[in-house]
Amino acid sequence: MMTTNPHAYSPIIRLRNIQKSFGHRRVLQGVDLDVGRGEVVCLLGPSGSGKSTLLRSINCLEKIDRGVIEVGGRLIGHELVGRRLRELTPRQARAHRVDIGMVFQAFNLFPHLTVLQNIIEAPIAVRRLTRSEAVRRADSLLSMVGLSGRAHSYPRELSGGQKQRVAIARALAMQPTVMLFDEPTSALDPELVGEVLTVLKDLAAAGMTMVVVTHEISFAREVADKVAILDEGKIVEFGPARQVIECPGHDRTRSFLSRFAWKASD
């Protein structure tokens, strides 16, 4: 999936000098990152290193203090007026999120809606699909994530792994160009992690561009094209997944990876 010709590489996600503070705490300190079309990039690092904040910034869910974010060649959260960047209104920012799918660690399903209703609501309201079109798309996606028999179930009737697979189907129903995953397995019991990771692997194999915040080191090594190691709001190491995980070049990367008992798949 990785592009081998550097002259042909054109990132679909482009971050430059991303800075963000919460009060006096600097969470992101000048982050640069490129993600190519069809690539899977995993963001790894200790808690509090800025991974989720960086991910949420790409989706305009977190306002950055400084920097430029582009997805598909389009500025996210800002527009260029002359030579200056102007921050978008919340309504304009929501329009920019349409092509960016996001899956959260806490599922964020509407408890009063069935699985099917959760999936078809946004395509009908935002993409202007007819109900029959939205239902057909939902049925196909539920089959893809292994939940074709649960369309009329409510979230309370599902396991954590099933809820997360519904959340993935809901995000995919909007036909995004990129998918963002914020620790999608962290709220799951260990025996349910595998079923969600299998869906992510299938998406990667299908060529979906994905940025994944995760602590699943084996998954990152096996599936990601590249990994970025964040520490104290900076990317301290970035490169091919297996190279970074198996032969880290930075002391902070080695210290972080030493905390995990990950196992190579081959």
What does this structure look like?
By secondary structure, this protein is α/β, with parallel strands linked by helices. It has a domain at 1-99 and 215-266: Rossmann fold. It is 33% helix and 27% strand. It has nine helices and twelve strands. Strands 8-9-10-3-11-12 form a six-stranded mixed sheet, with helices on both faces. It has a four-stranded antiparallel sheet with strand order 2-1-4-5, covered by helices on one side. A two-stranded antiparallel sheet has the order 6-7. Helix 4 crosses helix 5.
Topology, element by element:
Blueprint: E1 11-22, E2 25-36, E3 40-44, H1 51-58, E4 66-71, E5 74-75, E6 78-81, E7 84-87, H2 90-96, E8 100-103, H3 115-125, H4 131-144, H5 160-172, E9 178-182, H6 190-205, E10 209-213, H7 217-223, E11 226-231, E12 234-240, H8 241-246, H9 251-257
Helix pairs in contact: 3-4, 3-5, 4-5, 5-6
